[in-house]
Every structure is written in structure tokens, then in C-alpha cells.
Design brief:
Elements (H helix, E strand, L loop, with lengths): L19 H6 L7 E2 L4 H5 L2 E2 L8 H15 L4 H14 L25
Parallel strand pairs: 1-2
Length: 113
């Protein structure tokens, strides 16, 4: 529960999600969802259908993941690593981000887009 992003800080009524870099900075980077509506009140777990929407990003990630699955790439996990790298540091993969460096500083594991 140390890294758990609280339900009370999740967006409501169409609000935007906090940026991943802000979540990491506040040490609240684990987002947990459940398919059981009752767990929101009893355990503080977000009910997934309160936060589901089909928008451009969802379709982009879905299509990207399907593409990666068909290729020799890393599938869904690689898609998440790629997205987080671009959002957090501007690198092509989160593993290429250099901790404590300005955006665009990438290690040899990846390069800047």
C-alpha cells in the first residue's frame, strides 16, 4: 500500500488524470482497479467501470499493443514501457531514462525521440 494511488485522488466527472511523473514524485504510482463495485467502500479499491472510457489514447494503446503482440516485440509490457519513457523523460523506453537528469537525457539502452 506504500505506493498505492488513492481513490480519493482519482479523476471524477471527466477530469484529467495526474501526470505519471507527478504520481512518481509523490510516491503514489500504483493504480489498482477491481471488477467488484463493493470493494471501493470496503477496501478503497477503484471500481474499474467508473474509470473506463474509449478515447483516442485507449484506442492508440490498444492498437499499439495488438501490433506489438503480432510482431517480435514485447507486447503489452513493452507498450507500457514505451509510453512511460516518452511521458517521463522523452526517451523511447522507460529503461533508458536517466534518474535525476532533465528530460531528453537517455542512457545507451534507448535513444531520444
Amino acid at each position: 500500500m506504500k505506493y498505492w494511488f488513492p481513490v480519493s485522488k482519482m479523476p471524477q466527472n471527466g477530469q484529467d488524470w495526474r501526470l505519471v511523473k507527478d504520481m512518481v514524485a509523490s510516491n503514489q504510482r500504483l493504480i489498482v482497479f477491481t471488477s467488484k463495485k463493493s470493494k471501493r467502500e470496503s477496501e478503497g479499491v477503484a471500481y474499474q467501470w467508473n474509470y473506463m472510457a474509449t478515447d483516442g489514447l485507449t484506442l492508440l494503446l490498444s492498437n499499439f499493443t495488438k501490433y506489438e503482440t503480432r510482431s517480435n516485440g514485447g507486447g503489452a509490457f513493452q507498450a507500457v514501457d514505451t509510453l512511460n519513457g516518452k511521458l517521463l523523460c522523452g526517451c523511447s523506453d522507460v529503461h533508458a531514462c536517466v534518474h535525476g537528469s532533465p528530460p531528453g537525457s537517455c542512457s545507451d539502452e534507448g535513444d531520444k525521440d
